[in-house]
Amino acid sequence: AAAIEDGRLPRFSGGDPVAVQDPCHLRHAQRITREPRVVVEASGHPVVELDPDGLCCGAAGVYSVLRPDTAAELGRAKAEIVRSKRVAVVASANPGCEMQLRAQLGSEYRVLHPVELYARALASDGPPA
User: Fold this and answer.
1) Cα(85)–Cα(112) distance, rounded to whole angstroms?
2) In angstroms, how far is the first alpha carbon of the chain from the final one?
3) 90 - beta bridge partners?
4) Whether the Cβ atoms of residue 114 and residue 36 lie closer than 8 Å to each other
5) Torsion of CA 88, 94, 100, 102, to 10 degrees
6) Residue 64's CB: how many other CB atoms inside 10 A?
7) Packing angle between helix 114-124 and helix 34-42, nearest 10 degrees?
8) Sequence-ordered strand ranges (E) for 6-67
9) At residue 126, does pLDDT exceed 80?
10) What's residue 112's pLDDT?
11) N or C: fewer beta carbons within 10 Å in the chain?
12) What is the spatial distance between Cα 57 and Cα 63, in angstroms, rounded to a whole number?
């Protein structure tokens, strides 16, 4: 994010809105929320906020293995929040969250890491149409 903010990396525009899902370890433990949004916005996509309290998606490391029913319930709740925002793409900076969101949202949604969005913009000189 620092290389974007200080101008060493370019910013793009013109992409569709992207919902940003905050992984619990980033939002609640490390207090990192701004950087993923900077990367998504720099890739040319307006950020859509999902939920102000940062509801867990249910992946939570091995939680989904230890408590699959509760994890699935949390995943369904997060998926409903995503659906309510009417976006086709969700960015999450955690592989476990990405897998959980893919499983709960189905194939009509794309779930990508913020850096994937930025890499695609760099490769094509802007966000995909």
Assistant:
1) 17
2) 24
3) 19, 111
4) yes
5) 30
6) 20
7) 20
8) 18-21, 47-49
9) no
10) 97
11) C
12) 11
Q: How many CA within 13 A on the CB side of residue 58?
A: 21
Residue pair 36/93 in contact by the 8 Å Cβ criterion: yes
Residue 81 tokens, joined: 């929040």
What gap in Å lies between CA 20 and CA 36, rounded to an integer? 8
Q: What is the DSSP letter of 107?
A: T
Global pTM value: 0.89
Q: Look at residues 2, 15, 35 and name the one whose alpha carbon lies nearest to residue 121.
A: 15
Q: What is the pLDDT of residues 70-109, one digit of tens each?
A: 999 999 999 999 999 999 999 999 999 999 999 999 999 9
With a CB cutoff of 8 Å and minimum separation 6, the contacts of 75 are: 57, 58, 59, 100, 101, 103, 104
User: CB–CB of 98/21 below 8 Å?
Assistant: no
β-partners of residue 48 are 19
